[in-house]
Design goal:
This protein has about 240 residues and is α/β, with parallel strands linked by helices. It has a single domain (about 5-235), classed as Aldolase class I (TIM Barrel). It has ten helices and eight strands. The protein has helices at about 20-30, 40-55, 70-85, 95-105, 125-130, 135-150, 160-170, 195-200, 210-215, 220-235; strands spanning about 10-15, 35-40, 60-70, 90-95, 110-115, 155, 175, 205-210. The chain has an eight-stranded parallel barrel, surrounded by five helices. Strand 1, helix 1 (about 20-30) and strand 2 (about 35-40) form a beta-alpha-beta unit. Helix 3 (about 70-85) runs parallel beside helix 4. The longest helix is centred in the C-terminal third of the chain and has 19 residues, at about 220-235. It is globular. The relative contact order is 0.15. Bound molecules: cytidine-5'-monophosphate (C5P). Cytidine-5'-monophosphate (C5P) binds next to strand 8 and helix 9.
Length: about 240
């Protein structure tokens, strides 16, 4: 049921750190400033599953960014295992078979699935090389519609794609966007970036932010500033929020 998302819960901090000890030290520094963490493949393969369980038990929200894609039985069984960790979000590649299988694996749990439409590192020529007869925008739109049809809870996409996709999927699916850079922060290796306020104003529900928080001199202060930007943008837009 759509209700409000608190501005703080709209910030998801990516724990792209090489060890569980590093991640735990960062989580301690961030304290109450951050309620939602993303654990990707690097940390998962460095022992991060236990950390995901502990974070969930401590009342934090956990986003497992594992981008599942395999035969349906494997995706379903893997999703069932991840649901047992108490995670809130899990990514799956936006192929109908994988999305349906992940939904079956998450059935009966509170795990929500986010579909990756097209990797943002792909451009039209990468798709042509892979044999696709359409460009990135068209494929993003097609997969967003398919994700809605199978009942996926949300999408991961570039902040530049939210305006294209929202009218195709209606108000209920959550749009989660990486590629966020507060004004004045290092761009790093991101190519298509947006500030937190612009991303929210453009239709994102939640933002994934890594280095602008984790590499800041004062990570908790950096997170608080982003939450304040998000809150101001939400108030300005005055749109219906979702959870
Ligand atoms: O440090 P930064 O804010 O660039 O981190 C962004 C996070 O979002 C990283 O964990 C990255 O893997 C993830 N991500 C992304 N672009 C995508 C999908 C995921 O930057 N298309």
């Amino acid at each position: 049921m759509p209700t409000e998302i608190a501005p703080r819960d709209r910030l998801i901090v990516a724990l792209d750190l090489p060890s569980v000890a590093d991640a735990e030290a960062m989580i301690a520094r961030l304290g109450e400033a951050v309620t939602f963490y993303k654990i990707g493949m690097e940390l998962t393969y460095a022992g991060g599953l236990g950390l995901a369980q502990r974070l969930g038990a401590e009342g934090k929200h956990v986003f497992m960014d594992l981008k599942l894609h395999d035969i349906p039985t494997t995706v379903e069984r893997a999703t069932r295992q991840i649901a047992k960790l108490g995670a809130r979000f899990l990514t799956v590649h936006g192929f109908s078979q994988s999305m349906r299988a992940a939904l079956a694996g998450a059935a009966g749990s509170s795990l929500e699935l986010l579909a990756v439409t097209v990797m943002t590192s792909y451009d039209d020529s990468d798709l042509a090389t892979a044999g696709y007869a359409m460009g990135v925008k068209e494929l993003v739109a097609r997969r967003a519609i398919q994700a809605k049809e199978v009942g996926i809870h949300g999408l991961i996409l570039s902040p530049e794609e939210t305006a294209l996709v929202r009218p195709l999927i209606g108000p209920d699916m959550q749009l989660v966007t990486p590629g966020i850079r507060p004004a004045g922060s290092d761009v790093g290796d991101q190519k298509r970036i947006m500030t937190p306020a612009l991303a929210i104003a453009g239709g994102a529900d939640r933002l994934v932010v890594g280095r602008p928080v984790t590499a800041a001199d004062d990570p908790a202060d950096a997170a608080e500033r982003i939450v304040a930007d998000i809150a101001a943008a939400v108030a300005l837009v005055g749109r219906t929020n979702r959870t």
